[in-house]
Amino acid sequence: MKVKASIPGLLALLLASHGLLAAVNPSPVQWIPATAKATGAGGEQFVSSLRIHNPNGVAAQVTVSYFAQSPFDGSGQALGDNSSPQTFTLTVPAGQTAAVEDVLSRFPTLAPHGIGAGGLRVDSVTTTQPQTPLPVSVLSRTFVANGRSATGAPGTYGFSIPSQTADEGVMPGDVATISYTSAAPTLTAGFRSNLLLLNGNAPRNAAGNPEPQSSVVNVKLLRGDGTTVGEKDYTLGKYSAAQLSNVGSAFGVTAEDTNLLLQLTVKSGGPVFTGLSIIDNAISSLNYAPPTKSWKANYGAYGLIIQDGEFGFSGRLDVFAGKPDYLSAGIVVRCPAAGSQPKLYFFQAASANTTFTSRADGSYAFQGTEGGASWSGTVFFGLDGTVYGTITHTPAASENCGGTSTYAYTGARGAILLP
Fold first, then answer.
1. pLDDT in tens, 344-377
2. How many domains does the chain have?
3. pTM here?
4. Are 78 and 242 spatial neighbours (Cβ–Cβ below 8 Å)?
5. Does the N-terminal or the C-terminal CB of the chain have fewer CB atoms within 10 Å?
């Protein structure tokens, strides 16, 4: 059950939508799928650090939460419960950058599930108004602290993992792919790949508080020619982080191959944050491969820009379980009567007064009426998560304006509606 926004809230939602997509980074809530303070398969001493930049004119209070990694069992479940994560807080003054070295050393219990690694969430607010979100930029680096050069000189090597926002997480209906996935028959030559997973599924309860829940992720491994090597469902527990090590071996790849593709879909829950580490088996050098997501609008409230001839009104469209189920907008109708001024009509289309009908091409048509007014139109889904279409509105006869107006619109997600 979802609570609908009132008409006066439309502009605020639209602005939130624009800000979310225009500033993926900085953001007030960011997720990092993996950090470590552990020893690798070749004796590598892995360490992670953060850089948190505050580009604002006011100080930021930043809270870093740790979601410790848990191992997959034989049935593909990693159920380490991080419902009450360990946290620490720091202040980043306006225009400054905080360096957090060896970030996992800041948490009292490094490996509650037996692994010294895990994901992070970074939340930032203003110091003067703790309820006001404040976007900051976050970048992590995971590196080998005991590296050596070819001549034996000490040094480090590793990779940076960019943070992800909730909009970049994988939700039901999304398809995330990670190229450059690699496999090798031994751990002494070629490349191996480790899949990183972090479950961010925490729908809010009636009191408005997040309640972490499990997520189920389908992982499919494909060859470069598009054929399937294998696939399997993996279950992540409450705020669980996990790593599927040596993906190629896990799916039965026995030959060296550096042109494999991972495809991830979420069967329940989400968002799930992901990425891939690629390791040179001979020298343990590291590379990070981010996911690419193709997704249709789903589980969200979308702010709409209506191309109404610069009148400047807007709307909201909700998509839930893959289907539009609520639309509200301000529509300007140019009355045909001589001397009549354009009139503004607000309408709210929901299941009680509107029918949303699926079409063969995957789009939706809608049609509804209330109080003598009627509306109809289309909803199309772009593969970048946007929506677009048309809205036609005819006012009631009692309004003394017989005009009918049709406008095109485009929209982007401004808020996630969790299942």
1. 999 999 989 999 999 999 999 999 999 999 999 9
2. 2
3. 0.77
4. yes
5. N
